[in-house]
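Anyone? Bumping this.
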Amino acid sequence: MEQAREKLRVFIGRHTGGRVIGDDDRIFAAGFVNSMFAMQLVLFLEKSFQIAIGNEDLDLKNFQTINAVAELIERKTASAQNNSH
Amino acid sequence: MRIGLLDLLIMELNSQQQRLRTEFRRFVDAHVVPEANAWDRQELMPPEVVRQLANHGYLGAVVPVSKGGAGFDSVEFGLLNEELGRGCSSLRSLLTVHSMVALTISRWGTEALKTQWLEKLGQGQAIGAFAVTEAEAGSDAREIRTEAIESGDDFVLTGYKKWITFGQMADLFLVFASSQRGHCAFVLERNAPGLMISPVHSMLGTRASMMAELRLEQCRVPKQNLVGAPGFGLSHIASSALGCGRYSVAWGCVGIGQACLESCLQYAGQRKQSGTFLREHQLIQRMITQMVAGVKAARLLCYHAGQLRDAGDPTSIIETSIAKYFTCRTAAEIARNAVQIHGANGCSGEYPVERFYRDAKIMEIIEGSNEIQEITIAKSAFESVVETAAAATR
């Protein structure tokens, strides 16, 4: 989980002009990210964590903060592992 | 017409991509090139050619094989766009908007929407169109005024969509509206009560793209037709669809450039001025050289973006914008010079270059104008400088 958070911090930092976003700060509310960022984040999550983001994941709560995204990753990863067993 | 060295083969293409490229080229030479000027003059895309596209599986380019589509990879899809763009940008724009809708349902649709529409879209039994643009909402989609109000099991849509490519022909629309819970995307069928469609004529270019206006008056759409959740309509649904659209347009512009180049090479070898063929004039040679280099560079940018898209890389989004920006500008410049080389003939309907010139101008406006791309790309460049500095301190 902490590893996922660190990856997220680095990725998000690339898109916020160097501004530090805290783990519970609202990523989109601060206005530091551009209109492409939402989909860049989706692709980043899918590629980095080998998960698929779909219709069922489009809940604002899942993308509001670094902690929320990390929890989404954890849930999706656990779900993928359960499905593979 | 085969041009040998200037056929501009990409050495990186695998055998399947090369085979498909040849197949696409034959299709376009046989079914598109001979008719494209007439379609443009008539402002009409005949249903027969759309059926031919469907019969070849091309309308299912982005639909997975498991869902009845062709399941092309991004480079294969790009090559199809290039070849269609070489023949007719209006027909290429059908592939663009149809694929945007199919890809969106495939990526973000509910299982019910996928079951209902993907196979039909993939086999061309239903045509999709993308309805975000409004009179007051072009480059900035956040300005859309079409409203979606929740009412029981439905949303009620009221608003007005403009310049909807293939709106005259589409069986379903991906419609964007604002709601109290943020922007939404809906699948809306053509026969929905309250949806009125009227044709748009006399546009500068892509005149056979069957453009339409949509008027939505208390138009009810079931909640199960929502694509994604409210609030994600622009950030995720429109954004991923427009990414597909930009990629398609970018490759289509490579096709325009290639078509102009081929026309000019042929014309310059036949037309004499001052006792010598145009091809002997150095100022013509300069324009040809710029065309060759421009088309090659444009194609490679598209190919690079395609590889990144297939890899699911986050940078594919900005690389697609860069490809779109470069290819559209390049196609417009090449088409301008192509008309120049053809002289008065190039201003007549007897040669296709005047159509390429008009169509190329459209490409600099749609799916994010040049100016929007300039803002986006520059911001990304500045971000990368900050990232480099940050990485150096870690």
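Late reply, but here is one note on the structure posted above: The first helix of chain B runs from residue 15 to 31.
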